[in-house]
Design brief:
This protein is mainly α. The protein is built from 13 helices and no strands. The longest helix has 47 residues.
């Protein structure tokens, strides 16, 4: 009997060693993901109550995933670059402006403006190609860029504050900033879109003023872009490496919006699913952002080798994501259903929504961990900075795939025709 007990303890030791070795990472990431879940819950509640805007402005839902994803991509990359520079010592965590920090701030601001313009154009093209009823191209551009400017003014200082404070408190920004920034991006993007729609509605009464403001906005975007690429080689590098990737990401984000637009009637009649969307997308994006940031920093430090087959520390990072997923996906399912019932709306049941969330999350994570690793080592081996490449591509792929998987699993579990 004693021998048997000893064998059991020995067989458990690898798990005990794993949790002991990575307890701080799991703890920091878990706290960050909880904060994200609360932020995404508010975003979900806002989206669940946006039925008036979605019905009044047809096609608006097409741009929402892309806009949310773009905030996470740009400011997640900004946070990842800050994290790397803080670890290396290039940037001081004392809120002192430096040339390196200024280049990052300007680049992130300009990327938001330029990508907001592209996002609007891509969204309108998809609506035309798929014969969706939608608002005009000018309206799409107006809403997208104004929402981008509003989000910029909020997200830039918050990203720096979270990065510097976490570093000063001895936490690894790779575990803290990317998920929190992604969640805050989700939280502030929807209100920014609503404000933009309200501003658009106000100027719709005077077409001349609307056209003048639209022209000023376009000129401002062009001038800001030219200024940024001429300011320094660093800002030019960030923008030149990021824009092609972010354009692809915008297309992927719009693809997610197209999936949602095709299911909009069912989503509007199932508020808990509509509430779950930002929670699920946000959690998936946050998990993948944590993995992306950790792989990026590990490649810079030389802790992992850019090999075709993941091994060692890379596998440990994968397992950390699964541990967090097994706790967080059922939790956000519970939050979505509970908030729906609190608001007096009809949900789909706790068992159904928790099952949908968990199964969808595990399927998505199983696909994305290997995609993220492949993107990380490929970009690194080709001389690109993973901080500028990995988070935007991986989170945009996550946004697009998460919508498809979530809706597909919902069909299987609920037997709904979406």
């Amino acid at each position: 009997m004693k021998t048997k007990k000893k064998k059991i303890r020995t067989s458990l030791s690898p798990f005990q060693n794993f949790f002991s070795e990575h307890s701080s990472v799991i703890k920091e990431s878990f706290i960050a993901l909880l904060i994200c879940a609360l932020g995404d819950l508010f975003a979900g509640i806002i989206l669940g109550n946006m039925t008036f805007f979605l019905e009044t402005f047809p096609g608006l839902i097409v741009i929402i995933p892309g806009a949310i994803g773009m905030r996470g991509n740009i400011f997640g990359s900004f946070a990842s670059r800050l994290s790397t520079n803080l670890h290396i010592g290039i940037i001081s965590p004392k809120f002192k402006f430096s040339e390196e920090l200024n280049n990052n701030i300007i680049s992130s601001f300009v990327l938001t403006l330029v990508l907001s313009l592209f996002l609007a154009i891509i969204a309108k093209l998809f609506c035309i190609l798929l014969h969706f009823e939608s608002i005009s191209l000018i309206d799409f551009i107006f809403i997208s860029i104004i929402a981008g400017i509003i989000s910029n003014l909020i997200m830039l200082p918050i990203t720096m504050f979270v990065s510097f404070k976490s570093f000063n408190h001895g936490w690894d920004p790779d575990n803290i900033t990317t998920p929190i920034i992604a969640a805050l991006g989700d939280l502030f993007t929807l209100p920014a879109i609503i404000i933009s729609v309200m501003i658009l509605s106000f100027f719709d009464t005077n077409i001349l003023i609307k056209d003048i403001i639209f022209s000023v906005i376009i000129l401002f975007v062009i001038a800001a872009f030219i200024y940024a690429i001429k300011k320094s080689d660093e800002s030019k590098k960030i923008i030149s490496q990021s824009i092609p990737i972010l354009i692809v990401c915008s297309a992927l984000g719009v693809t997610a919006g197209v999936v949602l637009n095709g299911s909009v009637e069912t989503l509007l009649t199932n508020p808990s699913l509509l509430t779950l969307l930002p929670l699920f997308s946000g959690l998936c994006g946050s998990l993948i952002s944590i993995l992306s940031a950790r792989l990026s920093s590990s490649l810079h430090y030389g802790l992992i080798e850019p090999l075709k087959k993941p091994e060692g520390e890379t596998i440990h990072n994968f397992l950390i994501c699964y541990v967090l997923a097994l706790v967080m996906f059922p939790f956000i399912g519970f939050l979505a259903e509970d908030s729906t019932e609190i608001l007096g709306l009809t949900g789909i049941g706790f068992i159904n929504i928790i099952s949908i969330s968990l199964i969808s999350g595990i399927i998505l994570l199983s696909i994305m961990v290997f995609l993220v690793y492949f993107i990380s080592i490929t970009s690194y081996n080709h001389g690109y900075d993973p901080d500028n490449i990995v988070i935007p591509i991986s989170t945009s792929l996550t946004d697009a795939i998460s919508s498809i998987i979530l809706i597909s699993v919902s069909i299987l579990i609920l037997g709904a025709v979406i």
